[in-house]
Amino acid sequence: MKKIDFQEIERIKDEKSSIDVLADIYLYAVLGEPVSDDDIERFKWYGLTLQKKEKSNLYFTLKVKILNAKLTIKQIDVLTKISKEFANGSARFVARQNIEFDNIKIFDIPAIFNLLNSVNLHSIFASGHVPTNIMSCPINGYNKNQTTDVSDIVLKLNKDFEGNKNFSNLPNELKIIVDGCGCVGQNCEDNDLFFKAIKSSNGKIQFKVNVSDTNDIKTIGFVAPSQVIPLAKVVAKIYRDFGKRGDEKHSKLAYLVEDWGIDKFIYIIQSELTFKIKESYDYIDTKKEFENYNGIFESNKKDFSFLGFELSNKNINSNGLEKLFTILKSHNATTIKITPKENIIVLDVPNINASSLEKELKKNF
């Protein structure tokens, strides 16, 4: 399949908002009419990328956002059903704490979207020139040594961006991470904007804000927890209005930062905010305690552990999802998180079941 030129993508976005293509997706599914090339590009805003074309049949890859990197056992069950019934058994964990399915047919998409919606999952802004899934530390909320729990910030930031026309036409994808543990590397998965929770000697929480340029990580400053979301929105707005368009290589936020220089970039951000970004802050640096997340760790939830294990094959497929569901259920565990490296952490395993669960997971995965 021929790759669409970035200038052409700009034309497609200008002619019709990609958010508005959802109604067309349902019409194509019901009426069976040929899908226009322009709409195929717009489908990406709902996580759908053309995988292959066989005669008149189109097959898509569907990317589903795993919000806060967290999946419940009920959600795993529904994802297994989607894999089996609509995706020819395919399923894999991919970058930015998402899951993908192949072989998706246009007429099955309404049923898939309904299944996802039934367990509070979706694919809105899973891809496209938008702020995609907000990443976070996979042990946040359970790590005894975390700086703060950022779950609410991550969920609110995702919610404020998703389906929002103000942020639906950026020059390219905008990648954001919010880390409450201090155990995620600054440039994890090539993020554009990075919020790291820090703590002062008197226990006050702030966030150190970094941004990527083409060669390095630059510090914007320090903000309070309540200021993370407004600042992220301002950065997205500035990127929307001033980012380089039509040239894929130079369309990332990093090139705008490099072109302006960090001082001008901070000045423009500050001019859009109602609060002052702190230039410096006296804080206790949180060391990166987890080089990986494999093994059993004591949780901050009494009588529970969290357990990390490495997937030898990220293509977990329907059989793997089904095995995972069964193993978790038999060990009274209900929730997992996906790491930035597409591995798995079981968040709520009872201490008495932890060793047995670890052995079972290692044997099967």
Automatic annotation (TrEMBL):
<keyword id="KW-0004">4Fe-4S</keyword>
<keyword id="KW-0560">Oxidoreductase</keyword>
<dbReference type="InterPro" id="IPR036136">
    <property type="entry name" value="Nit/Sulf_reduc_fer-like_dom_sf"/>
</dbReference>
<keyword id="KW-0408">Iron</keyword>
<dbReference type="GO" id="GO:0046872">
    <property type="term" value="F:metal ion binding"/>
</dbReference>
<protein>
    <submittedName>
        <fullName>Sulfite reductase</fullName>
        <ecNumber>1.7.7.1</ecNumber>
    </submittedName>
</protein>
<keyword id="KW-0479">Metal-binding</keyword>
<feature type="domain" description="Nitrite/sulphite reductase 4Fe-4S">
    <location>
        <begin position="129"/>
        <end position="274"/>
    </location>
</feature>
<dbReference type="InterPro" id="IPR051329">
    <property type="entry name" value="NIR_SIR_4Fe-4S"/>
</dbReference>
<feature type="domain" description="Nitrite/Sulfite reductase ferredoxin-like">
    <location>
        <begin position="55"/>
        <end position="118"/>
    </location>
</feature>
<dbReference type="Pfam" id="PF03460">
    <property type="entry name" value="NIR_SIR_ferr"/>
</dbReference>
<dbReference type="GO" id="GO:0051539">
    <property type="term" value="F:4 iron, 4 sulfur cluster binding"/>
</dbReference>
<dbReference type="Pfam" id="PF01077">
    <property type="entry name" value="NIR_SIR"/>
</dbReference>
<dbReference type="GO" id="GO:0048307">
    <property type="term" value="F:ferredoxin-nitrite reductase activity"/>
</dbReference>
<dbReference type="GO" id="GO:0020037">
    <property type="term" value="F:heme binding"/>
</dbReference>
<dbReference type="InterPro" id="IPR006067">
    <property type="entry name" value="NO2/SO3_Rdtase_4Fe4S_dom"/>
</dbReference>
<keyword id="KW-0411">Iron-sulfur</keyword>
<keyword id="KW-0349">Heme</keyword>
<comment type="similarity">
    <text>Belongs to the nitrite and sulfite reductase 4Fe-4S domain family.</text>
</comment>
<dbReference type="InterPro" id="IPR005117">
    <property type="entry name" value="NiRdtase/SiRdtase_haem-b_fer"/>
</dbReference>
<dbReference type="InterPro" id="IPR045854">
    <property type="entry name" value="NO2/SO3_Rdtase_4Fe4S_sf"/>
</dbReference>
